[in-house]
Design brief:
Elements: H1 36-40, E1 48-52, E2 60-67, E3 72-77, E4 83-96, E5 100-104, E6 108-111, E7 116-133
Antiparallel strand pairs: 1-2, 2-7, 3-7, 4-5, 4-6, 4-7
C-alpha cells in the first residue's frame, strides 16, 4: 500500500506541465508560507490581519484576518477585484445585499467585484483567509490630453 500524506498535506499530482530544471536560478520555488490553522487559533483578542503575503514578484495578495467575538468588518464593496474568502476557524455571518450566509470552518466564498459584504464574528471569533489579484502600486502618470 503506498504511503499517503497526512490530512492537509497535498500528495503528488500528475500534470502535463513543463518543470524547470532543478537549481535553475530564474525558476521560483514553491514553499510553505504559514500554518493557517495555528494562526487562526491564536490570541482571541487579536484583531485584523495576523498574516500577509509579502513575497516580492507575486501576482496575488492574501491576508489571514481575525475578528474577535462579535466584531465586524462594516459593509463595503470591492469595486475592482474578485476576492476568495476561506473560513479557517470560528464562526460568523456574511451579510450581502440580499441575504446572510453562515461562515463556518472550511467554507469558501467567492466575493465578486462590485458586490457588497459585511462580515461579523460570532461569540467564538472568526479567522478567514482572503486572496485576490495584487493591486498595482501607485503610479505617476501624465494627464491625458484635453480638447480645448
Amino acid at each position: 500500500m503506498p504511503d499517503t500524506p497526512p490530512p492537509g498535506i497535498p500528495g503528488a499530482i500528475d500534470a502535463d506541465v513543463a518543470v524547470p530544471s532543478p537549481g535553475s536560478a530564474s525558476a521560483p520555488t514553491p514553499r510553505l508560507l504559514c500554518d493557517v490553522h495555528a494562526l487562526g487559533g491564536a490570541d482571541p483578542a487579536t484583531a485584523g490581519a495576523v498574516w500577509k503575503l509579502t513575497e516580492s514578484g507575486r501576482q496575488l495578495d492574501a491576508n489571514l484576518v481575525h475578528l474577535p467575538a462579535h466584531q465586524s468588518v462594516e459593509t463595503h464593496a470591492e469595486p475592482d477585484l474578485d476576492v476568495l474568502l476561506l473560513v479557517v476557524a470560528g464562526h460568523g455571518i456574511l451579510g450581502t445585499s440580499d441575504r446572510t450566509e453562515p461562515l463556518t470552518g472550511g467554507a469558501l466564498f467567492w466575493l465578486p467585484h462590485g458586490s457588497t459584504r459585511r462580515i461579523t464574528a460570532s461569540a467564538d471569533g472568526l479567522s478567514y483567509l482572503t486572496v485576490h489579484r495584487r493591486r498595482p502600486g501607485m503610479q505617476i502618470r501624465s494627464r491625458p490630453p484635453t480638447d480645448i
